[in-house]
From TrEMBL:
Residues in Acyl-CoA oxidase/dehydrogenase middle domain copies: 137-227
Keyword Flavoprotein in record: yes
Domain of life of the source: Bacteria
Taxonomic path: Bacteria, Bacillati, Actinomycetota, Actinomycetes, Kitasatosporales
Cofactor: FAD
Pfam families: Acyl-CoA_dh_1, Acyl-CoA_dh_M, Acyl-CoA_dh_N
UniProt domain Acyl-CoA dehydrogenase/oxidase C-terminal: residue ranges: 240-386
Residue ranges annotated for the Acyl-CoA dehydrogenase/oxidase N-terminal domain, each copy included: 21-133
Family note: Belongs to the acyl-CoA dehydrogenase family.
Entry keyword Lipid biosynthesis: no
Protein name, entry field: Acyl-CoA dehydrogenase family protein
Keyword annotations of the record: FAD, Flavoprotein, Oxidoreductase, Transit peptide
Length: 393
């Protein structure tokens, strides 16, 4: 009988055994990049409320194949869903803002063009977006309509062969640095998507300041005042709310993984601190209450990672349902916040310092909890799936 492998505190369930060498290579490449290019600087970026060198970071991410990573063709890497998830895990272990940059670029803006755009639109935008030369944003949420996109007021009207867009979008990641905005608007024929070059007259994207979360990220309002677009700007295969909701489901999948990255970084910080911080003559990790906290955090963290892996394999097999993505987003973000808060209690007063990542991750996750569907919306998605009864209204 062969000897059991040693217990690994970093991988207590042996989940690495589920990954093939290519999966591990992707994970390690992104982890190394984040350790070199993000972690030494992100506390300062967060404190200053800015993301300097964003375009340079985007080009590096593009060279690494992380932009539009799970898409095929047009310069995209064509990676598996699990590999994309592992990239999100490592990026958000550094900071949610970096993962948001990649998610909005690839899973929202690029995915919308790839899934619903014309061949001309794909050829024009996707290679430059995959390389990081062009940044994209995704305009769906409005100042008065977040969880109810069906109430959107942004509208597009035909004038001859052109379209004229008017409206406002809010809380748009990458907005003020984007070269193209995928904007959703009401039309006489239903909700349509438009690829809007941001230099178009009447388009503006003022940056939102004074945030207490996602501070190392660019967040903007989109203002559309008589933005005139040619007919070829409309995404021809997108008609109705199912199109943007399909994009959101793809982005939510990345959050299932990414939130566990923030949780892992906070857990590892608390574990390391507990083994070195002494009170009452010994490390606090030697006290029962601290060990109970660490054990509970480890259980929820690695259950969340196992859930993310399972959903990734279903996505790769083409069997992942939107309700299952809601399951993952609801559970993993909620548990990630709980892990961060518990980690903060282990660090005590030091837990509020930017010398440690815990409070930064906890604050970021408050935004992650809300965007791409609030907790309440995902509860209702699952409630409807379980009962067959509609409870949204």
């Amino acid at each position: 009988m062969s000897a059991l492998p040693p217990f690994d505190p970093a991988d207590p369930l042996g989940l690495d055994d589920l990954l093939d060498p290519e999966d591990l290579a992707v994970r390690d490449t992104v982890r190394s990049w984040a350790a070199d290019r993000v972690l030494p600087h992100v506390a300062d970026w967060y404190e200053r409320g800015e993301l300097p060198g964003l375009h340079e970071l985007a080009r590096e991410l593009g060279a690494m194949g992380a932009l539009g990573m799970s898409l095929t063709g047009y310069g995209c890497a064509g990676a598996s869903a699990v590999q994309y998830g592992l990239a999100c895990l490592e990026l958000e272990a550094a900071d949610s803002g970096i993962r948001s940059l990649v998610s909005v670029q690839g899973s929202l803006a690029m995915y919308a063009i790839h899934r619903f755009g014309s061949e001309e639109q794909k050829q024009h935008w996707l290679p430059r977006m995959a390389s990081g030369e062009v940044i994209g944003c995704f305009g769906l949420t409005e100042p008065d309509h977040g969880s109810d996109p069906a109430g959107m007021r942004t509208h597009a009207k035909r004038e001859g062969t052109d379209w004229v867009l008017n409206g406002r979008k809010m809380w748009i990641t990458n907005g003020s640095v984007a070269g193209v905005a995928v904007v959703w608007a009401r039309t006489d024929e239903g909700v349509r998507g438009f690829a809007v070059p941001t230099e178009t007259e009447g388009f503006a994207a003022p940056e939102i300041k004074h945030k207490l979360s996602l501070r190392a990220s660019v967040t903007s309002e989109l203002v559309l005042d008589d933005v005139r677009l040619p007919a070829e700007a409309v995404l021809p295969e997108a008609l109705g709310l199912r199109a943007p909701l399909n994009c959101l489901s793809h982005a939510r999948y990345g959050i299932v993984w990414g939130s566990m990255g923030a949780a892992r970084a906070s857990f590892e910080s608390a574990l390391g601190y507990a083994k070195t911080r002494e009170q009452f003559g010994r490390p606090i990790g030697g006290f029962q209450l601290t060990q109970a906290k660490l054990a509970d955090m480890a259980v929820e963290l690695h259950k969340g990672l196992l859930l993310a892996y399972h959903l990734g394999r279903r996505m790769d097999a083409g069997t992942l349902r939107p309700e299952q993505v809601s399951f993952g987003k609801l559970n993993n973000v909620r548990e990630a916040i709980a892990i961060c808060r518990t980690a903060r209690t282990i660090l005590g007063a030091n837990g509020i310092s930017l010398e440690y990542p815990v409070m930064r991750h906890a604050a970021n996750l408050e935004s992650v909890l809300t965007y791409e569907g609030t907790t309440e919306m995902h509860q209702l998605v699952l409630g409807k799936a379980l009962t067959g009864l509609e409870a949204f209204r």
